[in-house]
């Protein structure tokens, strides 16, 4: 690759470029940072799950329930990020809030202070789920977004895989502060990664001038439109995200919108109500948001009930149930990236549909009192649910943003965060109530999951994808 001459203008003076600009501005590095952020979020959440009940008992309390309050931060974060084209700053602020919340939780002498710390922890987590995923989509060529999102989403499985066992061991050895200090150390490493990222708004300050930088691919000029297959788009697709979708007759209109803006839908920021109106008008957007809500319910409804079911049927204690959860998490490390690659190559319509239909039978088999069959069914349901479905929905939301002018990546991932947050809050309540209030509670819970997955399958058939599977069949029959 030929060398490029670049210079950075700062109040009229020339500065040397940032160290490692090439790899710090690559979508691979951003994928790693976002994946690390997601893993840190889940690790910080799960590493103290074992310790919190004991700490509350020590303080004389029995419950802490502040899980949904932080959802109020989701929409303001998304609107700010899209309005000002800000990605890196919210990410850094988010991890600093997360670190501060951990310190507060560790030293909290009162119940209300622990609640406040958990709320702040959720606010910090919002940044990576909304802004982090938006930044990843900004930086990644359109044809690779599904794969990179799938890789980043493996952070969910890694965080849940590491958090509980490490938290339990540290709590046994060092007490309540042990797992929290581990979470703080992980968050500090995450902070370093976020500080190293060079976002498009920073990189666009560089123009071809007189400074020799041999290791940096050429960056586009302000407002230039590049082909999505050009070498430039591989390093800075933020400038060309929607250009590949333009019709020839709309070129001038889209070029005017793309010039000088980091926002995918255009240079003029939209109000919250305007974004909501565009979102609600799209059956595809509404469908994927609802499916995310269903995913949140299904992913969390077994949390309070599975240990009780395993104990009542097979006499398992908490340590064995923990191993079962870990065994179910491992397969999802692989299903996410595979789903993303398939979505990039063939679109999200078929892979989303197949993920729902493949997840469905395993819930039905979990009503049979056969231990090997139960373990295999639980692992396979996790493979398709937490891996394939989650990654396909995230990739579908990126496609929704690209197809609705005025709706940016941060907007759709705010919808994802909000829908999943509500679903994951409803899930344990629904699961617990069904299990306790119905004679055959576990069977009723599994049948509910089968019903929700069947309904989700139908919605996916009609509304998911650039051309839904139903539309593909209609075209095929019309020939």
From TrEMBL:
One GO MF term attached to the UniProt entry: transmembrane transporter activity
Keyword Membrane: yes
Keyword Membrane attributed: yes
Compartments in which it is found: Membrane
Keywords associated with the record: Membrane, Transmembrane, Transmembrane helix, Transport
Membrane topology of the entry: Multi-pass membrane protein
CDD domains documented for this protein: MFS_MdtG_SLC18_like
Broad class of where this protein is predominantly found: membrane
Name listed for the protein in its UniProt record: MFS general substrate transporter
Species annotation: Lentinula aciculospora
């Amino acid at each position: 690759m030929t060398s490029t001459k670049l210079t950075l203008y700062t109040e009229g003076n020339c500065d040397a470029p940032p160290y490692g600009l090439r790899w710090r501005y690559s979508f691979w590095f951003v994928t790693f940072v976002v994946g690390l952020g997601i893993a840190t979020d889940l690790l910080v959440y799960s590493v103290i799950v074992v310790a919190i009940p004991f700490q509350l008992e020590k303080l004389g309390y029995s419950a802490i329930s502040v899980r949904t309050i932080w959802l109020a931060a989701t929409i303001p974060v998304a609107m700010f990020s899209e309005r000002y084209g800000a990605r890196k700053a919210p990410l850094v602020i988010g991890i600093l809030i997360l670190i501060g919340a951990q310190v507060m939780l560790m030293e909290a002498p009162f119940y209300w202070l622990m609640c406040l710390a958990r709320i702040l922890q959720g606010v910090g987590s919002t940044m990576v789920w909304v802004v982090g995923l938006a930044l990843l989509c900004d930086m990644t060529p359109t044809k690779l977004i599904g794969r990179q999102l799938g890789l980043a989403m493996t952070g969910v499985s890694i965080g849940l895989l590491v958090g509980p066992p490490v938290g339990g061991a540290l709590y046994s050895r060092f007490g309540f502060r042990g797992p929290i200090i581990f979470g703080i150390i992980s968050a500090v490493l995450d902070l370093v990664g976020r500080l190293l990222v060079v976002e498009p708004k920073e990189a666009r300050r560089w123009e071809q001038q007189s400074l020799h930088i041999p290791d940096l691919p050429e960056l586009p000029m302000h407002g230039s439109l590049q082909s999505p297959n050009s070498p430039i788009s591989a390093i800075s697709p933020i400038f060309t995200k929607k250009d590949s979708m333009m019709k020839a007759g709309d070129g001038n209109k889209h070029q005017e919108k793309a010039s000088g803006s980091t926002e995918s839908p255009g240079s003029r920021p939209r109000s919250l109500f305007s974004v909501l109106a565009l979102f609600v008008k799209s059956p595809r957007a509404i469908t994927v948001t609802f499916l995310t809500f269903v995913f949140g319910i299904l992913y969390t409804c077994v949390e309070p009930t599975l240990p009780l079911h395993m104990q009542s049927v097979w006499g398992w204690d908490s340590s064995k149930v923990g191993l079962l959860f870990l065994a179910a998490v491992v397969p999802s490390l692989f299903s996410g990236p595979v789903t993303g690659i398939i979505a990039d190559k063939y679109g999200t319509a078929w892979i989303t549909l197949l993920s729902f239909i493949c997840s469905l039978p395993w819930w039905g088999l979990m009503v049979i009192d056969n231990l090997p069959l139960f373990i295999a069914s639980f692992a396979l349901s996790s493979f398709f649910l937490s891996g394939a479905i989650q990654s396909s929905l995230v990739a579908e939301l990126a496609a929704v943003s690209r197809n609705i002018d005025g709706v940016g990546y941060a907007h759709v991932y705010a919808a994802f965060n909000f829908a999943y947050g509500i679903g994951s809050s409803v899930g344990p309540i629904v699961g617990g109530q069904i299990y306790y209030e119905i004679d055959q509670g576990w069977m009723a819970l599994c049948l509910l999951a089968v019903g929700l997955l069947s309904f989700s399958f139908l919605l996916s058939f009609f509304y998911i994808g650039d051309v839904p599977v139903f539309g593909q069949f209609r075209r095929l029959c019309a020939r």
